[in-house]
Amino acid sequence: MFIAGPASVYEFKLKSIDGEAFSLAKYKGKKVLIVNTASKCGYTPQYAELQKLADLYKDKLVVVGFPANNFASQEPGANSEIKTFCQKNYGVTFPLSEKVSVKGDDISPLFKYLTETPNPDFTGEVKWNFEKFLIDENGKLIHRFRSPVTPLSPELTKYL
Question: Which of 6, 47, 125, 153 has the most CB atoms at less than 10 Å from its CB?
Fold first, then answer.
């Protein structure tokens, strides 16, 4: 018997950085940019651009950060430390999830889905911090970007 996988990102149960349950389904009708983040990475300054992107496109896009410690232990802190760091250093107001794993045996089900779902760009495991997954207004993955693609780059914003 064939059992279908998730139809969209809306099917995943998530927890916010404050430990509260949330669903990406609350953003139906908007695009969602999912980003795996880290506080001690060369790409960490992208938090500033992610916030600016969230502000510029707030009527049609939601940025959601997913802190992860999968790469060179660049996100070692607890959720409360991560939240404080993001707010203090980058003025982050966009939603953050609790710390997750984005690869390996303990990969978050959401990131397993995101890395295996076909899209026009590429599939496969997350290679580093600040990879970006663009979700359409119906919860479907439509584009994926590697870490060097900055949030405000035309390569990304042309889809917004």
Answer: 47
- Measured over all CA atoms, what is the biggest interatomic distance in the chain, rounded to whole angstroms? 51
Mean pLDDT of 108-128: 95
Beta strands at 21-22 and 132-135: parallel, antiparallel or unpaired: unpaired
Q: Which residues are catalytic?
A: 41
Local confidence band at 7 (pLDDT 50, 70, 90 cut-offs)? confident
pTM: 0.96
Contact present, 35 and 65 (Cβ < 8 Å): yes
DSSP for 120-158, please give it: SS--S---STT-EEEE-TTS-EEEEE-TTS-TTSHHHHT
State pLDDT tens for residues 45-70.
Answer: 999 999 999 999 999 999 999 999 99
pLDDT at residue 2 tops 70: no
What is the average pLDDT score of the chain?
A: 95
Structure tokens at 18: 């404050």
Domains and CATH numbers, the chain: 13-22+29-157 (3.40.30.10)
Tell me, rounded to whole angstroms, the distance of Cα 22 from its chain centroid. Answer: 14
DSSP codes, 61-123: EEEEEEEB--STT---S-HHHHHHHHHHHH---S-BBPPB--SSTT--HHHHHHHHS--SS--
